[in-house]
Design brief:
The protein is mainly alpha-helical. The chain is about 65% helix and about 0% strand.
Length: about 50
Amino acid sequence: MPTLFRFLMTVAVLCAIVYAAMFALATLVEPNKGQMTVRIPAEKLNPAE
């Protein structure tokens, strides 16, 4: 039984670390905002059939 408990505690700690890292990235990192312009050639909009 101690081996199972140790395994479950290890998995719980790893999950907590991953959750904390995702939470930190979601709250502390700000995305860059800006306009983006992409030119599309006319051949791609109306391909000749």
